[in-house]
Amino acid sequence: MRLTFALGALVIGVFALVPAIGVLVLSFTDIRGLPYLPVHWVGIENYTSFFSAAHFDYNLNAIKNTLVYAIVSTVVQIALALGIAVLLNTKLRGRTFARAIVFMPTVLGVTVIGLIWSLIFNPNSGPAATVWGWFGVSPAFFGDQHMALGLVIFVQIWSSLGISIVIFLAGLQGIPTDLYESADIDGASSWQKLRLVTVPMLAPSVTATVLLGIVSSLQSYQLAYVLTGPNNSATQLLSLAIFSQGFGGSASTGTSQSQGYASAISIVQFVIVGVISLAVLAYLRRREAKL
């Protein structure tokens, strides 16, 4: 047991703790990732630059979009996943096939998902454009500043819904049937059984799903990058800013490529993710205790 624990701690240290410390150290330097350029210790200059007036509007917009992206995608995903999981847990004909179909988007790569939905929402000849054309509307979809973030959130929910459904299905199958039989004897309706039996018994599954959804969406940038590009202000996320700064600069902020500044942004993101995750975990744990 001690050997297993030591090996697990070693793996976590090598693959998680060491890189995290490395990023923290880099955030205090001006490293740019180009060969033969000297690296200088700049202290908190990258952090002051992040909160400076020159970058404040851009970074505030990225934080706001990130929070909207995380909250909306997580809440909608949990609600849909719970409803679909309850439906697929019944004696439905062909439910095994339905489960496979629901989970299928999860195994697709981000590039494939981006290609599929870029074709569907192609403003010139996509199916969505055809449907909107019936009503005399010709939206730009991912190019529309008012629609882009909502569409990216929709694709995010579609692509990750299967994982939440699997977690809820596992939780549903662990609920004793005696509870439902007792509820039937007491004359409980389907809605009452869902609210008073299913949801309370699924509290640990809800906690796990919410945390996975929040952490994943707060750190996700791939879909926004593939669907709308790195410089669309409507879908600018904090994680996308890290990618842009670390691997190519950002035309939106006018700053050049800098791994040091990207590391500083990643530390800010780490703090935001940590605070939100711990707060949500504490709240959900208290709710579990009450239920």
UniProtKB/TrEMBL annotation:
Major localisation: membrane
Entry GO CC: plasma membrane
InterPro entries in the cross-refs: ABC_transporter_permease (IPR051393), MetI-like (IPR000515), MetI-like_sf (IPR035906)
SUPFAM superfamilies per record: MetI-like
Protein name per the record: Carbohydrate ABC transporter membrane protein 1 (CUT1 family)
Keywords: Cell membrane, Membrane, Transmembrane, Transmembrane helix, Transport
Family note: Belongs to the binding-protein-dependent transport system permease family.
Location of the ABC transmembrane type-1 domain: 63-280
Membrane topology: Multi-pass membrane protein
Pfam families cross-referenced by the UniProt entry: BPD_transp_1
Transmembrane regions: 67-88, 100-120, 148-175, 196-218, 261-284
Cellular location(s): Cell membrane
BP GO annotations: transmembrane transport
CDD domains: TM_PBP2
Naturally occurring in which organism (per UniProt): Frondihabitans australicus
